[in-house]
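Quick one, tokens below. Sequence please?
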């Protein structure tokens, strides 16, 4: 499932996550933690993989198209239980 949000919205979601959430998401989804960080705007492609986000520059940090919302859905579940 794809989703389009602003880059600033994506970063705000990341910033609201409790400490250790990147590691928790990575473990839950059996991903490298750097891959999860890349999903939220990181750029460590030596250790993590590309996550299917496409950024187009513009207001509010630009528009982000997410090819897969699995990581985002996991982040929302963490926020709901925090």
């Amino acid at each position: 499932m794809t989703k389009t949000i602003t880059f600033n919205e994506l970063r705000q979601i990341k910033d609201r996550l409790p400490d250790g959430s990147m590691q928790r998401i990575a473990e839950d989804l059996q991903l490298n933690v750097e891959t999860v960080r890349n999903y939220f705007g990181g750029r460590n492609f030596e250790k993590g993989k590309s996550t299917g986000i496409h950024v187009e520059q513009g207001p509010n940090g630009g528009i982000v198209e997410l090819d897969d919302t699995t990581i985002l859905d996991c982040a929302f579940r963490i926020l709901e239980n925090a």
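The longest strand covers residues 3-6. The beta strands are 3-6, 53-56, 63-66.
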